[in-house]
Structure formats: structure tokens, C-alpha cells
TrEMBL record:
Bilayer topology term: Multi-pass membrane protein
Major localization class: membrane
Keyword vocabulary terms for this entry: Cell membrane, Membrane, Transmembrane, Transmembrane helix, Transport
Originating organism: Intestinicryptomonas porci
Compartments (UniProt record): Cell membrane
Family: Belongs to the binding-protein-dependent transport system permease family. FecCD subfamily.
InterPro entries: ABC_BtuC-like (IPR037294), ABC_transptr_permease_BtuC (IPR000522)
Regions that span the bilayer: 47-68, 88-117, 129-153, 173-193, 223-250, 287-308
The protein's name: Iron ABC transporter permease
Amino acid sequence: MLVFLSAVSLGVGLKEISYSDIFAVLAGKNIDETLGAIIFDVRLPRLVAGIFCGAMLASAGVAMQALFRNPLADPSITGVSSGAALGAAVAVNFGVFAISVQISALVFGLLATFAIWRLGRINGRLSAFSMLLAGIAINAFCGALVGFIMYGVREAGVKGFVFWTLGSLENCSWGEILVASFFGVLSWLLLFLNSRGLNMLMLGSDNAYLSGASVKSLQRISICAAAVMAACAVAICGIIGFVGLVVPHVCRMLTSPDNRTLLPFSAVSGACLVVFSDIVSRLASPLDSVPIGVVTALLGAPFFLYLLRRGANA
């Protein structure tokens, strides 16, 4: 499915490109310089960024759901999204200092996660309930600061900021993708190597400890890995909602709750969802593509309501 969607993504756009031309350009046959520039400089970075973003957000969702033992948990609990939005707002408002939106979003997202992690500790132990409350408070605080900052920003800056907060693959460069991929893939591998410990965490902290797991270490790894993966994705693609919530839950129903299987399957499925959403966004508005976050919200919101309804009837 991912290979098929990738081929469709490379062919969709203002200029339709046949699959034979796509394969020829990727194989190194210089058919047309214009086609080569479109594929290698525009569409391929967009595709790779979408695959990376979907995989990281879905994997971060798996980590959060295992840590909180709740299928409705998603990466936003760590505060990455709200912190990244604050960082982007700061970069937009103080652009005279040449602050990169991506770097600012990454730094502020990780700072928000660190604040929530520190506030969620009680007597030296991490409390899921306290961390959830801290996340609500930090998210609200960052949202208030974003509103205050953007109130005085130029109209053009507001438009760019709003588009970024809805998710976009428009301006992804190879340099940003390589840097984000380096840290994101390392975090994913760290999480995967501890996937058996994540299975123990789903039994609860006490049962995991009795099973021989290092609970504190696993909690730190889960939070840090999820925060870095989500922050790297948000930094290059903006805020794309529902991927970290919906994908792990669907994959868990299709495969098993075993994180050794769930993590890689969720990563590929998350990549498929974001690439598919990007294709829909470009087909819906070829001249000015719809933000990806709008498409994922339209797909994810009904499923979220279904989960709530199912939980109420359980």
C-alpha cells in the first residue's frame, strides 16, 4: 500500500506525470530536466517528509498509549504540539532575528515536554495522572501565549502560521528532512529495542516492576522517544492531528497489542495515512493544496467519536 501511494503521490500535482516517466527519472534516465526537477526537488522531498512524519507520529502514539495504558492517549499529551506552536509563533513574530520556524518549534516542543515531565513527578516517581494534568496546564499556557503573540503579528505572518499549525508538506527541504530523520530514527530504534518492556508497562507500574522491568528507565525512554519523534515530525511538517491517536488503535485491532509487532506496523500505517491525506489535499485543491491536518481531522474525528461511543457502551 505504501509503495502504491508513493507512486500516486509522485504523479499527482499541477503537472500530471505518468508512472513510466516517474520510474525512468528515478532510474537515472534523463528524459526531461523539468520532470527531474519536479520529482527530485519538489515531490520526492514532500513524499519522504510525509512518510517520516506519519511514521514518527504513529510510533509516538504507540509509546504514549503503552505508558498511560489508554488507547485514547496521543503525542499531544507530552506538550510537543502546543510547545511547537509557541516556538513557531515566536519565530514568526521575531523574524527579524532570523529565527528558523523549524528550529524554534523543535526547541520549544522539547522544552514543553521537559516541563510536563518535571511537573508530573510526585516524590521522585512519575505519575500518569499528574503528568496528564500538567499536560493540560502547559498546553493551555502555551495556547494563551500563542494567542497573545499572534495578536500583534502582520497578516501575512498570521496566514503562514495558521497554515503551519494545520500541517503542511509544502516547504520541506532535504536538509531539514535528513536532520529530523537522524534523531527521529534513533529514537524509534531505541523505543523498538525496549518494546518488550513497553508490553510490561501495559500491565501497570507495580506489575511491570514485579516482572523484572526497570519502570523508571522505561518511562523515561517512552517519554523522551515519543517527544523527540513527535517534535521532529512537527518541526518539518507542522501540527498534524489524529495520526498518533487513530493509527495505533486501528493497528492494535488488526494485529495485536504486542509492541514488537505494533510499532513497525503502526509506523508503516501512519506513513500511509499521511501520504494518502497529502494526495487528497492536492486533488481537492491543485492550485493551493488543503492543509494535511484538515484532511486527517476529517478522517480521524469520526473515528474518535466512534471510540467514545464504543467505550460508553462497553
